[in-house]
């Protein structure tokens, strides 16, 4: 099967919600992947910040194979040890005093957080929640009602929840919107889908203070930002502003579907028996994969590695002068090339032609979220190729 064959079959059988991707990937090794025509790429997007250990990592492959052979599924009718170990591990990494709900995706992790927020709000006369313009929290109707991007909200609204949107990064706007009637504030520590947009320094600390002063829950959506992406386990640790609820997914499973919602302190027991559930949540294969990811990050020092290689990547990009390129933003191995105009699709295509997979996350921003195992030399190979990639994009657009 070639790229062309698979693209045409894809186009015929799937709903048209994604558009037809440019190539089909068939295998990977470390940070490299190969398409159906045999072309090799350096994977600088990692399945949207998911493939934290890269591709074909022996620890992940062994953990999944062994658990699948031993017991692939139990449901929540029975205890399975990998899920217990994963939950204990997440609580310990987050500093203790928390409980966990395991889900299968980011959206579901946010649905759990939202239901906790709604239950808290009903108990305390807090009928609304606050979220941010251009924020992204997922695609189910609950998570979508928190998502601040009009083009993906409007076709499906109105929504059942009262969600008030504030401009991201503006602490005064947040202070004005959050009263003692507010149940929860949903925030990404850096907005991912908006184009890896960090807030001004101190924003997360300010949000913590605003929530403490009013009694609103601070919910950190760290689905994209956690598990080493910024050089820390969790991005909230950079400002030491621990949220009340924390949602995780993407990089946690290293490619296996797993999500988690952590609730701290008194909120850890807001859900009572019967309040929530998931047939697949806590699946032992997914939990074994996540444990392999966490063990490997710890054993191989990948937090410090992601911070260091991320700096190499960013300084290499910053050193490039080109009319299409305005700069670079983000932290660790989570960056965006900021463009001077709407050339991101052309840059993405030119990069692919040059052997690099990147993501045109916005018209004027190209996202990089490579595996945490990306080497220095691999980062430099991209920045060395970047001027020619931008030239090619300029010619094409
Ligand atoms: C990807 C993402 C989600 C949705 O996760 P899915 O696994 O696609 O459901 C939610 N919030 C943020 C911040 C994300 O980046």
UniProtKB/TrEMBL annotation:
UniProt keyword annotation of Oxidoreductase present: no
EC code(s) of this entry: 2.6.1.11
Cofactor needs: pyridoxal 5'-phosphate
Domain of life: Bacteria
InterPro entries reported in the protein's UniProt record: AcOrn/SuccOrn_fam, Aminotrans_3, Aminotrans_3_PPA_site, Class-III_PLP-dep_AT, PyrdxlP-dep_Trfase, PyrdxlP-dep_Trfase_major, PyrdxlP-dep_Trfase_small
Reactions it catalyzes: N(2)-acetyl-L-ornithine + 2-oxoglutarate = N-acetyl-L-glutamate 5-semialdehyde + L-glutamate
Amino acids binding N(2)-acetyl-L-ornithine: 139, 278
Residues reported to bind pyridoxal 5'-phosphate: 106-107, 136, 221-224, 279
UniProt GO molecular function: identical protein binding; N2-acetyl-L-ornithine:2-oxoglutarate 5-aminotransferase activity; pyridoxal phosphate binding
Localisation per UniProt entry: Cytoplasm
Keywords: Amino-acid biosynthesis, Aminotransferase, Arginine biosynthesis, Cytoplasm, Pyridoxal phosphate, Transferase
Residues where N6-(pyridoxal phosphate)lysine is found: 250
Record-level GO cellular component terms: cytoplasm
Any one of the GO BP annotations: L-arginine biosynthetic process
Involved pathway(s): Amino-acid biosynthesis; L-arginine biosynthesis; N(2)-acetyl-L-ornithine from L-glutamate: step 4/4
Note: May also have succinyldiaminopimelate aminotransferase activity, thus carrying out the corresponding step in lysine biosynthesis.
PANTHER family: ACETYLORNITHINE AMINOTRANSFERASE, MITOCHONDRIAL, AMINOTRANSFERASE CLASS III
Family of the protein in this entry: Belongs to the class-III pyridoxal-phosphate-dependent aminotransferase family. ArgD subfamily.
Name this polypeptide is given: Acetylornithine aminotransferase
């Amino acid at each position: 099967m070639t790229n062309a064959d698979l693209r045409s079959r894809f186009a015929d059988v799937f709903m048209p919600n994604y558009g037809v991707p440019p190539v089909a990937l068939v295998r990977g090794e470390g940070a490299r992947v190969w398409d159906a025509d045999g072309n090799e790429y350096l994977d600088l997007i990692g399945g949207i910040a998911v493939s934290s250990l890269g591709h074909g990592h022996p620890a992940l492959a062994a953990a999944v194979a062994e658990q699948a052979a031993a017991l692939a599924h139990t449901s929540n009718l029975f205890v399975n040890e990998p899920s217990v170990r994963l939950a204990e591990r997440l609580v310990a990494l987050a500093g203790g005093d928390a409980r966990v709900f395991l889900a299968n995706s980011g959206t579901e992790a946010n649905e759990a957080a939202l239901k906790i927020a709604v239950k808290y709000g009903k108990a305390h006369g807090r009928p609304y929640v606050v979220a941010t313009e251009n924020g992204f929290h997922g695609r189910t109707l609950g998570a979508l009602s928190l998502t601040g991007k009009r083009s993906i909200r409007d076709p499906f609204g109105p929504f059942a929840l009262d969600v008030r949107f504030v401009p991201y990064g503006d602490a005064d706007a947040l202070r004005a919107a959050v009263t003692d009637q507010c149940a929860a504030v949903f925030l990404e520590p850096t907005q991912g889908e908006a184009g890896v947009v960090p807030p001004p320094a101190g924003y997360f600390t300010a949000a913590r203070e605003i929530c403490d002063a009013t009694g609103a829950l601070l919910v950190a959506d760290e689905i994209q930002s956690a598990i080493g992406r910024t050089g820390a386990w969790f991005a909230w640790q950079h400002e030491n502003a621990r949220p009340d609820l924390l949602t995780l997914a993407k990089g946690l499973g290293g490619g296996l579907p797993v999500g988690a919602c952590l609730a701290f302190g008194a909120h850890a027991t807001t859900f009572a028996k019967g309040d929530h559930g998931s047939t697949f949540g806590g699946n032992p294969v997914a939990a074994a994969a996540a444990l392999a990811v966490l063990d490997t990050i710890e054993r191989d020092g990948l937090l410090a590695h992601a911070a260091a290689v991320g700096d190499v990547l960013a300084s290499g990009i910053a050193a490039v002068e080109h009319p299409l390129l305005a700069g670079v933003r983000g932290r660790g191995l989570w960056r965006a090339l900021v463009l001077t105009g709407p050339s991101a699709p052309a840059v993405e295509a030119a990069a692919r032609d040059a052997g690099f997979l990147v993501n045109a996350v916005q018209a004027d921003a190209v996202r990089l979220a490579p595996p945490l195992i990306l080497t220095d030399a691999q980062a430099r190979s991209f920045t060395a190729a970047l001027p020619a990639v931008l030239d090619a994009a300029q010619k094409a657009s």
